[in-house]
Amino acid sequence: MEQRGESWRETARSVAEVMGLGAKRLTDAARRQIELSDLRAGINAALRELGLELGSLTAILITHTHADHISGLQTLLKRCAAPVFTTERAARELSWRLPGAETRLDALDFGIPQSIGEFAVTAFPTSHDAPGSCGFRLDAAGGAVGVLTDTGYVTDEAADILEGVDLAVLEANHDIETLRSGPYPYYLKQRILGAQGHLSNEDAARFAAVLAQSGTSEIILAHLSRENNTPAMAQTAVERALSAAGVSPLLSVAPRDCLGPAHTVSRRSVCRR
Q1: Mind listing the pLDDT tens digit for each residue in 61-77?
Q2: Residue 7: which domain range?
C-alpha cells in the first residue's frame, strides 16, 4: 500500500507539473500576442512622429536572433517590403526560424561598409550568446550613429568602428551589486555577468568616456534591466566616468515603457573641462 500510495503521489505530481507547464505556455503565448500588438503600435507611432509610415522603411537591421529582438519581425515583414540586413550567421538562423524570410535577408560582412539607402552601414561583432551577434555604425551626410547593446564586453572591433560617432546608443544593462543580490537564479546571474552577457553600468561608463574623448557628442543609455537597474543608477555611473575624464557629452536614458524623443544627429563639439 505504501508503494502504491507513493506511486500515486508521483503520478499526481507529474500531472500537476504538466498542467502547470501548459498553463504557463498559454500565459506566455497570450503575453507574446500582447507584446507583438504593442510592438506594432510602437513602431507605427514612432514612424508617425517622424512623418513616416511602414512603407517608408528602407531596411530593417537585426543585431541578433534572441526572441526579444525578433519576435515582431515576421509580422513586420508582412506589412512592409524592406529587406532585412544582419550578419551571415544570424541570417542563417533567421531563415531557419522564420519560414519564408530567406528571400528578404541580406548578409553583412563585419567591418565592411555597405550602402543602404542614404547610409553606409558597418556591422561589427559583439560578444553575446547568439550566433553572429553584432552592432552597427551608420554613416550619413549629417553625421554617424553607433549602436552597441547585448554584449558581454566591448569588443576591439566595436571600439575601433565606433570611434568618433556623433551619437551612440550604448547598453547599460545592470548594476552589478543589484544583480548579485537580486532574485535571479544563479545560472542567469552568471550568464548576464559573463563574457557573452550584457554590459554593466560600470562597463558602459568606461566606454562612454572613451567615446566622448573620441568626439561623440551624445550618448543614449539603453537596454536597461527592469529588475537589476534603474535609469538613475545608470545615468549616475556614466556621469561620474565622464566627469572624471573631463568630458560632458549630452547624456540621456532611453525609456523602457514608452517612446522616447526623436534625436537629431549632428556634428557638435564635445565640452571639455
Answers
A1: 999 999 988 988 888 88
A2: 1-56
